[in-house]
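Q: Two folds, back to back.
A: First:
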Amino acid sequence: ISPDMEIVCSIPEIPGAASLMLYPGKLYVPCTDGYVRCYDSETLQLTGEYQVGLPSPAAYRSMVFSPTEGTAYLTGEQGQILELSMPTCQVEDEFSVCVSPVGLEITRGFPGNLWVVDADENRIHVVDLEDNIQANSVGFGFLDQVRDMAASIYYDSLIVATTEGIFKLSINPDGSIRSNYLPSSGGTWDGLCSIPNDSNFVAVAEGEPGSNNWRIYELCAYDDSLYLFPPAPYYGGFGVSGLTWHSTPAYDGFHVF
């Protein structure tokens, strides 16, 4: 997707594609058959296939890169989280913080933190990247079902998409987690992605509940945005079809996949 919110190109259907992750010159697509498929980010041609586990329809739903460690994290089978070497996707470590991890994100910092969405408990766990051990967690209400999250340009801060709007999370100096609801962001959100070199995000929102009328918007969540306090904290938008969304910033500093 270009800066003017136009679809530039797409990859033909990838069977079992569960998530995606950008790496310099490459696009990694974990699939439910237990393989991570690698594509050239310029030509979008398949360049490699790496087996990381057994087939599982519920696994491999999220993959993120840790720039301070040079490794990637991927949700695996039976509640495991895999740490993979890059660029060959060899398994370096496996650990667990919950039964059903369905989403991962890494926030800026030294070395930063891994945030894990727990589908069973509707919580987000924070993992210390130095030892891959859980440091804290925060829960959400019964109606605020977590759907996605995306790191901001600020240290240890991200936004969370739920079925009742957008939340901003950050880590306080004492290690506790601060949670703030973004006003006027009610409704179901998904497909969050930080815009390269910007504090805003690309996000997908449903119109009327249950309508499947989805639109892509630019979302303004932080104080330095010129558009922070319009009637709603988002603008632009165009209709898209589908029910499941995954997005990631491109390394060219302008586009979003």
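A: Second:
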Amino acid sequence: QIIVRHRRKADRASIPNRNLKNLLREYARQQRQDGRVEPRVLFYLGQEYRFVDVQKALHFYERYVAVSGWGEERSHAHIAIASLYEAGCVAVPVEIAQQKAYDHFAVAAVEMPDSPDGLFGMARVAQIRGMHHDCIALTERGFAIGNTDTMLGTDPMQRLYYPHIALNFSLNALGRVEEAAASCRKGLEACPDDPGGGGVGPGVLTNNLKIYEAHLSQSPPRSQQTITLNDQEDLAKPPQAIPADSLAMFFIQTWKQI
């Protein structure tokens, strides 16, 4: 005799913010128990609130990085905070948002020196600010680290495709058109679909490559070209590596774990 019992699975699609609601229940339970909340609950509350309430997401991320002892996940949290500022999701002036994003990307780079993600984030902000030498230097440092393994997982296109969006713009801005074209080709080799990102639309590398190749086909030999520089960029100043504020943030967090 065969007995078949059918248990209907929960229709997750019909329960809005299901994960967030479960996390809030666990958060309340832990607070009632002894007033302390596990760091990972704070981290995942930040993850879920990104799509619902940015200010609450920032609140839980910042609580998390203050108490967590896991450097890799702290790095991910700093990148998440930086990404919210970078995308303009936080209601602060643009200059402040860019600096906040840069600082948190920098902390992420210090937290995980064998991960390129923080450096690529810093490079994007540098390109937006017109600091093209910084963008190029930071991107090259990220590429030198490579697409390393991570316990938390990452989209490989964040390391193989997206960095070329900022990089090709900065190379071209400094008159390094051949290198800008090469950057586009490398990005397209990693992701032929060319979806764009970071405020630019699909086909950005494909379209830019066509422009660069057309320019190069009509340009004089390299020895006769004049390299133009951004007048606003202080070339006497070394590239911004890790801001002092970011280092201070990192050391304070580290000290709290001792």
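Q: And?
A: Residues 39 and 67 are 7 Å apart (CA to CA).
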